[in-house]
């Protein structure tokens, strides 16, 4: 009878699985049992490795995701923007109902410094989740307008951002007018 993997092996195996070991095989059972055993010892970095491995499995165990969800929640405020982007991307791909979006929202709205690429990635992920999020107001006020990120996106990126904001229900007449002006700057062929 096989024993659970120790913590060091668990992370090494997680790295291996996250690189593309897809499909169903008995190895997953031992890996998931070990994850549950060691879940309380995982750091945010090792937990992300484990999540990236687990999303490769086709038939996913609800119990292991539930265990990791409870361990992840208190770590969310300490995640860097790039780590949070990785975590949201994983949960979006998993497409399971979870309780983490309020914590995701709080973390996103606490960031004072984000690059235009990070803002774009988070907006895209929030849109993909297909639920309305209060992050749109935060991004509109703090980054897109005050920090001038609106001016740094390409015409194609702006068209996508506009569609996401409209879908979120946070589009107002002032923001819509701003997009109209930006399109004329980015694409001089657009006339009144």
Q: Layout of SSEs?
A:
Layout: H1 7-18, H2 27-38, H3 44-54, H4 62-72, H5 81-94, H6 101-110, H7 116-128, H8 135-145, H9 155-168, H10 173-186
Taking Cα atoms only, what radius of gyration do you get, to the nearest Å? 20 Å
Provide the helix percentage.
Answer: 55-70%
CA-to-CA gap between the ends? 74 Å
SSE series: HHHHHHHHHH
Domain count: the total is 2
The fraction of residues in strands falls at under 5%
Structure classification = mainly alpha
Mean pLDDT: 80
The DSSP helix count reads: 10
Annotation, overall tally of beta strands: 0
Uncertain ranges? none
Please tell me about this protein's structure.
The mean pLDDT is 80. With 192 residues, this protein is mostly helical. It has helices at 7-18, 27-38, 44-54, 62-72, 81-94, 101-110, 116-128, 135-145, 155-168, 173-186. The chain has 2 domains: 1-109, no CATH class; 111-192, no CATH class. Helix content is 64%, strand content 0%. The longest helix is centred in the middle third of the chain and has 14 residues, at 81-94.
